[in-house]
Structure formats: C-alpha cells, structure tokens
Amino acid sequence: MANLEYLKAKTTEYAIILSRINKELQALAHKKAEHQWLINYLQDQLKDAQISHKRLKSIVNKNTGQQNLLNKAVTQIHLLEYSIYSINYNYLPALQKENSADLALRELLLSSAKRLSMFWVKDIIICSDEPLAIIPSPPEYPIIFSPPQQAISLLEIPGLYHELGHDVFQKFEEIDKQLYRTVSSHFNKLSSELGRLNPESKDRQKQKIKEALEYWNTERLNEIFCDIFGTFTCGIAHYISCIDMGIRFKEKPYDVDFRDEHPPLYARVYACYQTLTPTQRKEKITIIAKNSWNDYTNNNHKSSDFNLICAEPLLKSIVKIAILTIQELLPDCQRYETPLIDDSEIEKIPDNILLEDILNQAAKLLLNYPERYEDWETKIFKALKFSS
Q1: Does the predicted TM-score (pTM) go above 0.85?
Q2: Assuming Cys at both sites, which of 20, 183, 234, 290 could form a disulfide with 161, CB separation 3.0 to 4.6 Å?
Q3: Residue 88 belongs to what domain range?
Q4: Which of the listed residues 73, 97, 121 is the one where a domain comes to its end?
C-alpha cells in the first residue's frame, strides 16, 4: 500500500493538474461556444475531481501512518483519476486540435444523429487525425476520430455511421442482451441436434459449440451490430465502404481470430448485405461491389471454425434481431431507403446537404463514372466545407 510520502507528493501533483485543467476549460468556454454543453459537462467532472482532491488532502494532512487512512487516500486517488482521465487524454486534446473541417463534419453528424433519433447526443467532437474510431463514453458526448483531411475519402466516410452505432450500443444495454439471446438460442439448438454420436465425439462437438458461443462476446456483437446499424442508416454507401475496407487493407475474409474484437470481415460484409433492402440489392453499384467482393474472397478458404461460428443462418438471425431492436429502441430512426440519384443529375451539388445522400451519390458516381468523379469531389468538398 502507498506510504505517506508518496501520498503527499500525489496531493501536490494533483493540485497542479487540476489547476491546469480549470484554466484550460475556462479558456475553451470563451473560444468554443458551440461546445458549451460539453464544456459544462467537463467542468462538472472537474468539480468531482476537486472534491476527491480535497478529501485526499484532508486525509493526508491528518494521517500519522494508520493503514486504514492510507487505504482511504488511495481510494480518493482512484476517484480522481476516474474523473480527470477522459478530460486530460481525450476531450482536451480533441478540442485543442479541432479545425474548421472538423466543425463542418460535426454539424453534418449532429444533423444525422437527430434524424436517426439519437436524442441523447448533446455534442460531438471530431478529431481528424486517426483512422475511423469512436470513444462513446459517455454516449451524450462522443469523440469520433476520422482520417486527416488529405486522406479523407467519400468511400471511407460511411464508416462514420458504424461509429455512431457504437454510441447507440453504449446507450442501450438491451441491444447486447437481445443479440446474445439470438446467438445463444442458435448454438443451443445446434447442441440439442447432435444426434447419435459416441460419447467422446459428442463431447468434442459440444465443446466446439460452447467455444463458438463464447466467441460472440459483447465486443464482437457490438461490432456486427454497428455494421448493421451503419447500413440501416446509410444504405448502399456503407455496404460498399465495408467491402472497400476489406480489399484495400488486405483483410483475410474468413479469419477467425479470438484475439481480435472484430468478427471475420466476410461475416461483417454479409451482415451489411442482408441489411440492404431488396431494391438496394438490385442497384448496379451494389452488384458491382458484390461481384468485386466475391472475386476477392473466392481465393480464400473457409475453415470449419468459420463455418460453425459464422454460419449464414446465424448471421441472418443477428441482422433480423438487430433491425427489430433498432426499430423498437429508436422508433423514429430513419432507415436510409432514398433512391439513388438519377444519372442525369449525378454531378449535381444539392442545395440542402444530407450526408447520407452525398455519400450514396459519391459511391454511384465513382463506381459508374470514375472519369467524372474528381471534379465533382472537389466541388462537394467545398460545399461540405471539408476544404477551402
């Protein structure tokens, strides 16, 4: 357990850190009016940390080495760290680096979140210097990482809707429960249908089924839910984006890696495809993307582990329940079913910009008329304020 000298040192150190955070938040409150909700939240977190620091200081000042008081002091240190960690390592760096393109994308995503009935989201910070990712805790104030401006691609940006899915998953524990029930029911049924096997073979099969069920933990259910949510809310563009990610990063489509929180990419792409409406599946760009994916995956081998863990009937059940759960928990969430823009208007820059529309227009233009894409992208980036 920590000794008194160490605790005195930490008390002094935290006083300095809390003072710095306080000054930075006060400065940001004047410079970042658009983030007032978030800054108020961070100031509340800081107050919690200051209370813990006051208690720590009181314990240390009256401590003569009693073990029970030392234990209480360490508890206050843990509470302090809990209160300031996300401020120091996540929110302040993101706010300090935020640029005009980040703010433009933030506005688009806040509008999307509103259309998707994500009523709890009060603010979003965009941090454009990382591959796509999200910190969804707390879900009211997610930090979304996007590629740097020079690397931004309208084929990759649909992945933002996958990231919004993480925020939804974080908000509603029921999603995890519903999906786990679906997976559990599937594998329990398999186990009960093993039929006539000798005891040793049956035990071996039951163990494999048990491991397959354990594979679908919360992290992997989270990921495949987000693939479904992304396609549900952004349509064909998200499906194509998922395929593009797999091909350009040389993913092994059938690789079952128990160390990776992501399910095999083939399962993820399959779930996206199953989420598309029948009309969306018939679109030319969907067929182009699907054929490209089939060509890419045909040279790969499905293992017995993959066939068990990612069986198509299971994936279809997951998609079905995920969609029903979205519709139940977010009854006003708008499924993206807008018809693709007509070829005669394919290079049009709309007056009222909806990010989902732009991303689907970009996918159609790039796949059908690549020679006309560059000029249009330059214009749309200016309209989106992604560039000057």
Answers
A1: yes
A2: 234
A3: 4-97
A4: 97
